[in-house]
Amino acid sequence: MALTLWSVMTISAGETAYLFSYFINDSKDGLHLAYSYDGLNWTPLNGGRSFLTPAVGKDKLMRDPSICQAPDGTFHMVWTSSWTDRIIGYASSRDLIHWSEQQAIPVMMHEPKAHNCWAPELFYDEASETYYIFWATTIPGRHKEVPTSESEKGLNHRMYYVTTKDFRTFSKTKMFFNPDFSVIDAAIVKDPKEGDLIMVVKNENSNPPEKNLRVTRTKDLAKGFPTKVSVPITGKYWAEGPAPLFVGDALYVYFDKYRDHRYGAVRSLDHGETWEDVSDQVSFPRGIRHGTAFAVDASVVEALVANRAYNPLIPDNLADPSVSKFGDTYYLYGTTDLDYGLGRAGTPVVWKSKDFVNWSFEGSHIRGFDWAKGYEYVNDKGEKKKGYFRYWAPGKVIEQDGRYYLYVTFVKPDEKMGTYVLVADRPDGPFRFAEGKGLSVPGTAEADSPAIVPDIDGEPFVDEDGKGYIFWRRRFAARLSDDKLHIEGEPVSIKTARQGYSEGPLMFKRKGIYYYVYTLSGHQNYANAYMMSRESPLIGFVKPEGNDIFLFSAPENQVWGPGHGNVFYDEGTDAYIFVYLEYGDGGTTRQVYANRMEFDEDGTIRTLVPDARGVGCLAAPQETRKNLALQSHFYASSEKAPRTSTVSIETQPNQPLPDKGSVKNYTRTHTYQAAHVADESNGTRWLAADTDSSPFITVDLKEVRTVSECHFFFTRPTEGHAWRLEKSADGKNWQTCAEQGKVQARSPHIAGAIGEARYLRLHIRRGDAGLWEWKIYE
Questions:
Q1: C-beta separation of 320 from 332 below 8 A
Q2: Could you give the residue range(s) of every CATH 2.115.10.20 domain in the chain?
Q3: Which residues pair with 163 in a beta bridge?
């Protein structure tokens, strides 16, 4: 299980780390956090996902999040809730994961002409044990007018503030900083050596445009800051959102180069007297926008890293998952996606794990097929076509008399399909067709092995009495013969409360109740409904009391279209776990998610709200070594351009799909930065640009370390990779330290006995040019 904050604090207490709060895109998905140990290299936490979604303000935004840690350890946060609100948002947290109910602080409600409340910042004054909250507001006609551009006509900002000791009662709003220019985005840092306070502000004048950052300082916060400010500390570009941070004796000011769509930084080594631009030395998560940098005990960062998201479960694009456990090993079977559409699938493999978190595979469990080869055939209309063999939707593997049975859909190049029974002596194969020789190539006279059912998504179920059943799409089911190779009697149709197309069925039993689960709709609007029976796996099904749709999209958690999956019961933890596909970017870019199920006393399934937290370890972690990659800096030969997906998800309060409700559009952007290989997320990755003919990725360990192993989790791992790893002590002189010369399909690839190095460089010679994760162990 994930380490708690308190257990991790015993590991790192007393050391310093740094956090950065920020927003991305339109700020509606909420709070994002990144961490650093050196102030230069910032890595996103939670797989780049939001920690808190906004709930207050008329626009429900969470822009410019400012976080301040109290002496008692509590984190307080304020943010911009709207472009034109007269309130700001507030929430608090003990661990930056679980947050209080959000509140609206009405800081400017007494000013009916106030245009806005922008970029609130928090500062704790130790001398008075008081929190200062300050922000920018325009009140027309209130201040000395400054020339403005046509696009910013009417905007003339000044800084206002309130104070509080408990975030329940607040002082009256007063003027905080009133220079002779329009000012926004003020941020304060205490000089640890001199003891005075340094405030960085943005000169917002627009005609002529200033749009730069300047500094002023004071020794007494109650007396305010001098309105005579420094010359610009930023260059000839537009800058905003300053975040000052002392890292040792070095003062950094991070800022948003918003016209360039990137972050920059300046640094002072003499406590704010002179400045140098170090933008080319810092690395931030792509898409980062205005936030706050602050120092914390390193244990806080370690706890956030340990409390990482465990979804997606597998470092690959995978769909239609099923899980079985034999002995002390979990086995996951699924459809391998290659982003080629349904007309072509990847090489099938069996993923294995001892703890349900660390997964691996070695080669394919299905032999005799060339999944990448296209075959010509003539369709019913006499048209010449080209198609591929495909392996789809493997059901839960069952064991009987020492043999393992796999029920899986095969689609032939000519689109003929069915569910077939395969057997093996081991749960990870190799599997062979239980009857016949297999499947023939189109145009040949060879006979195919018989399909157990002439359709897709066959899913077996074995009852406590040993009798077997099989279920397939469109609500069909049948009894299995004792040898589990054929159906007996006529198929039946399961009567369900919801109508319409359905696929991916499954059956499980709990406390004497049979549960028939079936999908509804599809794509981003996938949903899972169920029926209950106390009679038999084939008859007696009734609609459960309450909501019979227990799983559907949770866009607030960035989970779209939870679809075809399976229920796995883990005896060791007495947990029922639903493993399912998530929509991804659409088409065949899906990934596997897993969440625990909960039941009411009457056996009904509680609504499962899918999320990225997932399940975590179900057994002792199989990997306990410290991953050096988490504190290292990665850069690559190139990075693929971001990919944005937009979906329309149909929802209706208390009544999810398929009953039509309101429709709302949601957008998310996947980036492919080198830093993603060290965020411990199977949902982010580095991809080289398509035009990169010699892709490589480099890691700087910050100092010479003795490295025992590197684990490479390549993208599209089932298609195989060849690679070469080099090491260097100075970044100039390199030598090969490990190599995979022949293309091998496995995950992870492991390089051992590397020795001393500060820099490691991985060249991808064959295979997809990308990595989900790169783990580095001493």
A1: no
A2: 5-306, 318-596
A3: 132
Q: Count of CB atoms within 10 A of residue 20's CB?
A: 27
CB of 757 within 8 A of CB of 778? no
Is 2.60.120.260 the CATH classification of the domain at 628-777?
A: yes
3-state helix, strand, coil in the chain (%, to 5): 5, 45, 50
Q: Which of 519, 532, 536, 542 is nearest to 604 (CA)?
A: 532
pLDDT tens digits for range 459-517:
999 999 999 999 999 999 999 999 999 999 999 999 999 999 999 999 999 999 999 99
The ranges of the chain annotated as CATH 2.60.120.260 are: 628-777
Non-local (6+) Cβ contacts of 438 within 8 A are 368, 448, 449
The dihedral built from the CA positions of residue 58, 59, 60 and 61, taken in this order, carries a sign that is negative
Q: Are 704 and 729 in contact (CB under 8 A)?
A: yes
Cα–Cα dist 539/693, whole Å? 59
End-to-end CA distance of the chain: 23
Rounded CA separation 148/363 (Å)? 65
Determine contact, residues 746/593, Cβ cutoff 8 Å. no
CB 248 within 8 A of CB 231: no
Q: Is 42 exposed, middle or buried (0-12, 13-18, 19+ CB in 10 A)?
A: buried
pLDDT per residue over 611-661, tens digit each?
998 999 999 999 988 899 987 889 999 999 999 999 999 765 445 555 556
- Looking at the chain, the number of H-run helices and the number of E-run strands are 2, 51
505 Cβ contact list (under 8 Å, min separation 6)? 457, 459, 471, 472, 473, 475, 477, 494, 516, 517, 518, 519
- Residues 528, 562: Cα–Cα separation, whole Å: 8
Contact 74, 94 (CB under 8 A): yes
Cβ-Cβ contacts under 8 Å for 344 (sequence gap 6 or more): 338, 371, 388, 390
User: Is the domain 5-306 a CATH 2.115.10.20 member?
Assistant: yes
Query: Phi, psi at residue 720, to the nearest 5°?
Result: 95, 150
How many other C-beta atoms can be found within 10 angstroms of the C-beta atom of residue 538? 20
Q: Is residue 355 within 8 Å of residue 626, measured between CB atoms? A: no
Query: Nearest CA to 697 among 684, 711, 705, 687?
Result: 687
Task: Give the integer Cα–Cα distance in Å for 301 and 299.
Answer: 5
User: What's the Cα-to-Cα distance from 418 to each of 371, 375, 711, rounded to whole Å?
Assistant: 17, 19, 38
Distance CA 511, CA 504 (A): 23
Q: Is residue 421 within 8 Å of 485, Cβ to Cβ?
A: yes
CATH superfamily placement of domain 318-596: Glycosyl hydrolase domain; family 43 (2.115.10.20)
What per-residue confidence (pLDDT) applies to 49? 82
DSSP 176: E
Task: State the Cα–Cα distance between residues 288 and 295, nearest whole angstrom.
Answer: 19
Q: What's the pTM value of the predicted model, to 2 decimals?
A: 0.80
CA–CA gap between residue 121 and residue 137 (Å, rounded): 13
Q: Is 249 helix (H, G, I), strand (E, B) or coil?
A: coil
Residue 322 carries which side chain, given as an amino acid letter?
S
pLDDT tens column, 589-617:
999 999 999 999 999 999 999 999 899 99
pLDDT band at 5 (very low <50, low <70, confident <90, very high): very low
Between β-strands 329-336 and 318-326, what pairing exists: parallel, antiparallel or unpaired? antiparallel
CA distance 534 to 545: 14
Instruction: For tokens 């060849």, name the residue.
Output: 722
Q: Could you tell me the two tokens for 452?
A: 């157990």
